[in-house]
Structure formats: structure tokens, C-alpha cells
Amino acid sequence: MKRLCLAALIAFGVTAPAEAGWFRGDGYLPECHSRQVLATVAQKFAYANRKTFHWGVKIEAVTDVYEKPEQIQAHSDIGRRYCRGTAWMTDGSQSEVAYLIETRQGFASVGWRVESCLPAYDEWHVYGSWCRSIRP
Q: How confident is the model at residue 50 (pLDDT cuts 50, 70, 90)?
């Protein structure tokens, strides 16, 4: 009976369709337009605004999102997506936003993380001039 149950579990596991984003520990990399990724970009900007810069604006929405292909074809165990879009601020202005999604960069190399930069708001050039270090 144990063998039958084990065989059924193996067969179900092999034939069941995988959900999008199901395997986050190794190789899952969300899309640039993922709601979770865009929320992370807005949260990081809000944190920087609240704790350091006090610009008085927040990211209201991100539109025109697209992925820039990586130009260097070097082998790496870290998956990367280079993304860009237009950030609409709460004061009605807009700004370019560049962000990088990397897999295996979460806590203990499990999961993914997002590094984002708005060139107009990067006073200290944390990511280089006009966010060069997170562009392909």
C-alpha cells in the first residue's frame, strides 16, 4: 500500500502543472511587470523617502514597463532581469525607473530581490551616474 501511495504521489507530481512562481528557492525569477515586483519598487522608494530624503512624494504607479536584454552572455548561477519603466509620482510628475531583479539573492540565497533606482531622485549616486550599475 505504501508503494502504491508513493507511486501515486510521484505520478501526480510529475504530471501536475506548475503554478507561476511556485519554485522560488532555485531559479524562479518574476516578470518585470509582476505586481509583487512593482510593489517592492514602490516600497523601497517610500522607505528611502521616509527615512532619509524626505522628498514628500511616493510612487503611485509604474507604467510602460519593459525588459532590457542582458548584453553580456557570461554564465552565472544568478538569474537577472533588467527592467525599466515610467514611475508616476503622487505629485503628478513622472520619472524614469530602472530596476534589477535577481534570483538567489534573498535570505540565505533563497528567493529573489529587487534593486531599483530613479535617476532624478538618486542624489547620492548610490547606483552610479544615472543608475548605471543596475542597467544592462
A: very high
Domain coordinates of the chain in residue numbers? 30-134
pLDDT, one tens digit per residue, over 93-136 is: 999 999 999 988 766 777 889 999 999 999 889 899 889 988 88
Residue whose grid cell is 505520478 = 11
Amino acid identity for residue 17 in this structure: P
d(CA 92, CA 42): 15
Burial class (CB in 10 A: 0-12, 13-18, 19+), 11: exposed
> Taking the model in full, what pTM does it have?
0.74
Q: Which amino acid would we find at residue 123?
A: E
Closest to 32 measured CA to CA, from 122, 78, 98: 98
